[in-house]
Design goal:
The chain is mostly helical and about 290 residues long. It has 14 helices and no strands.
Length: about 290
């Protein structure tokens, strides 16, 4: 069922352009603010306790609906799972962001390119063209995990509850980016925990989909698999996987211009990594059927 859910989600992401408009999570932030205001303040209470209460209440609601629909008819639970998975991807369309960045760079509209890279990264970016392309490439590699692959990973492991939990961790981390209180720190820790495993799988997917040898050449050692910070590990491994592709076909004149092809290569690597996920999931599914 997980394989079919992921395939349906990918099809919907490719052909339904209005999904980005539907993925509005303002209600989550309103609920978080309301809950923090309503929760009584006790001497034992800190950001971690508040976060657990808020996240648990949301996850319980998702689990309850999923269980109720599944008990009525298994097909209802399956459809609910697909709907949750589709809604948890994103929230922005990665391919659309990449197209906007490429179009701006090709037209040498670097102000617009900075705007679109800022939208991709979720933070303000203002950089010269050469550095901007490098930043865009790294953000594509990173955002592929938080927007899509991480959601798939936790959905396969825990179903709709897992997908919602991963998306919540990303939303809360971004929402509390500039805060320094206990709740913000707890939100960042939740994201680090939820992102640790998907990041490793994402790195291996990039290695398989790109240049495995070049990927490993960017590691400090095999201990990076469990010791290196997740986002940094994704970026350096993705850049390593792209290393061969970026060496090919570059003339001396082109080296003085922004390497727009690097963005195309990064987006292509992401697509191949998704295919790796689907193929692996398909093999696991077939194995489960046979044994």
């Amino acid at each position: 069922m997980s394989l079919l859910s992921v395939i349906f989600a990918l099809i919907a992401e490719s052909f339904i352009s209005s999904l980005t408009e539907l993925r509005r999570f303002d209600f989550v932030f309103r609920y978080v603010s309301w809950s923090r205001a309503k929760l009584p303040t006790f001497s034992f209470q800190n950001g971690h306790v508040t976060l657990v209460i808020i996240v648990a209440s949301i996850l319980f609601s998702v689990w309850l609906v999923s269980a109720m629909l599944g008990n009525v008819l298994g097909l209802f639970g399956f459809i609910f799972g697909i709907a949750v998975l589709i809604f948890m991807i994103g929230p922005r369309d990665l391919e659309e962001d990449v197209r906007n960045i490429n179009t701006s760079l090709e037209n040498k509209d670097y102000e617009a390119a900075n705007f679109y890279v800022s939208s991709l990264a979720g933070r303000t970016i203002s950089e010269p063209p050469m550095q901007l392309v490098q930043t865009a490439k790294e953000e594509i590699l990173l955002q592929a995990n938080t927007r899509m692959l991480g959601v798939f990973f936790w959905f396969i492991l825990l179903g709709p509850v897992g997908a919602v939990l991963f998306r919540l961790s990303c939303l809360l981390k971004d929402n509390q980016r500039d805060e320094t209180d206990d709740f913000a720190e707890a939100s960042r820790e939740l994201y680090q925990v939820m992102n640790w495993l998907p990041a490793r799988v994402c790195v291996l997917s990039y290695a398989v989909a790109g240049s495995f040898v070049d990927t490993m050449s960017y590691w400090n050692g095999i201990s990076d698999l469990w010791l290196r910070e997740s986002e940094e590990f994704i970026v350096v491994s993705g850049v390593g996987a792209l290393r061969y592709e970026q060496r090919v076909g570059r003339s001396q004149h082109e080296d003085t211009e922004p390497d727009i092809d690097a963005i195309h290569h990064a987006a292509s690597l992401v697509k191949r990594a998704v295919i790796v996920w689907v193929v692996l999931l398909g093999l696991l599914t077939v194995t489960g059927w046979l044994f």
